Every structure is written in structure tokens, then in C-alpha cells.
Amino acid sequence: MLLGAHIGIADGLAEAPVTGRRVGCDAIQIFSKSPQMWAAPPLSEEAARGFAEAVRAQGIRSTAIHHGYLANLGSPKAPGLARSRRAFQEELERAERIGVDALILHPGAHLGEGVDGGLGRIAEGLNLAFAKTAGYRVRVLLENAAGQGSTLGRSFVELAAILNRIEERPRIGVALDTCHLFAAGYDFRTPELYGRLIDQLESELGAKEVRAFHLNDSKAGLGEHLDRHENIGKGKIGLAGFRSWVTDPRWAEVPGFLETPLDSDDYAAYVHDLATLRSLLGRAASKARGTRTRASAASTPK
């Protein structure tokens, strides 16, 4: 897995890759504007070019923008839905201009008007935006929900129901948040449980649709439907719950972004969490080497 984190842009877009590399990221996720704003000043050519050049210079291997929090493509309310669709298209345009690989989006909520209708509105909004942005290379990734309230995308089945209605399938995919998965009731804290989850993922959605991860431990318990992120190994998931994800060969080239809590000490918590995750990779490699050594010794003539 390409390990990284969500990096702030307070010092400018071009500084985010520099900060990411300093923290130890191979992949970075950013906001292109305040996530609590509907609109933002247009991106300058200088800012977009500076970000792309910094990504190359710092050797960042995967990039994403996280969409703002206000848009709700599942809304049954016409004014809010129209505004959300405009905001999504504008963010899609910003993502393409900056040159990131993916735009990660919370699908939305049906606000009590029914799951099927909400899923249909989300797919319709995505199809409308894709039709207006033909030729764009940035891929939209739907993030799974923790299941709070009327949020949509809380299950592999719901995510698949949206993807199956998209006319330009190569432009869509999924970002799995480990905290949200756990909060929604998916357990993966042992190799056996992880294996069952992957079987379910393959059956209901398809592992190939997963194009990114948010790697977050959870303050809340299994199936409690609370979106409360915790630092790696310090929550209810626990360190062992991340081993299978980061060592699974199928995710070797897939980015995993931390969105874990930070304190006043800049990005020190990210540095620690990244080191913790990489220690799992190291242990897996050591275990594999030990297995090969034992196998070789067993086959060597005495």
C-alpha cells in the first residue's frame, strides 16, 4: 500500500507535497478549499502548476482531493440538490486542473425520503457531471459511510447500486474508510475476519473498484454507526486490525491516507502513525523471509 495522509493547504497548494514528504508520505490527500465553503476563489494557473511540479519534485506517487462536506448529491430537496450538483462539478473541475488522481466524495444522505431514491439521485448527479466534463482523467471515488442518520453508501451493496448506474464506469470507484467500515458493522480485526470481509467485498462490489483507503482507527465500537476517528492502534480496531489491509498484495499500489487526529505538535501524530503502519509491513516481510528460510532448510540435503 502507498501510505500517506491528509495534508493541509494553509501554506499554499505547492507546499502540501513538500510537507507530505517531510512527514513521510508516499501519497497525499488535500482539500482544494475550505470544506465548509460552497464556493472558493478560482484556482490560478500558477497555483495549479506549482502543485503539480511539487508532486513530481517530491516523488509523491498518488494524490487526491477530498470533496467538501456541504454537498449532498442524495438530497430530495430541489434547491439543495441543485446547489450540491453545481458544487460537485466545480470541485471536479478543480481536481482536474490541479492534476490529482482522484476526487473522494461522501455520496450523500436521503434525509428520510428513502434509500433507493437517494441512491438514484446520487448516480444521476454523477452522470450529469461526467457528461459535462468529457475527457477528464480524474477518477471520482465514493467513500463508504459509517451509517449514521440517513447517510448512503454504508454497505458494499449500496455502493455497488450507485456504481452500476454510472454510464462512464472507468471514471468511478470507491475509497474505503476503515473507521467507517468498522462503525458500519464490518469486522476485520483478525486474518479470518478479514478474509470473510474480502469475500463479501468481492461478491457484493468487487475488490477492483477499491482505488483508495482512509486508514483510521475508531473511537467507537463495532456497528455503533459513529464516525469518530482515532490514531492507529489506539482505538477499538487496534493495531492488528490494520495488518491485513497494508500487507495484502492486491493493495500494493493503492494509496492509503491517514485522517487520524492531530494535536498541537504539527504532524507528529502522522509521523508516528505512518511508522506504526510501516512496522506492520516490516513484520510481514520478516515473517515471509523466515518462512522461505525454513522451507529452504527443509529441502536442503543433509
Which features would summarize this protein structure in a list?
globular; disordered C terminus; single chain; alpha/beta; 43% helix; 9 helices; eight-stranded parallel β-barrel; TIM Barrel; 302 residues; two-stranded antiparallel sheet
Describe this structure in words.
Strands 1-2-3-4-5-6-7-10 form an eight-stranded parallel barrel. The chain has a two-stranded antiparallel sheet with strand order 8-9. It has one domain: Divalent-metal-dependent TIM barrel enzymes (TIM Barrel), CATH 3.20.20. The model is unreliable at 288-302 (pLDDT under 50). It has nine helices and ten strands. With 302 residues, it is an alpha/beta fold. Helices cover 43% and strands 14% of the residues.
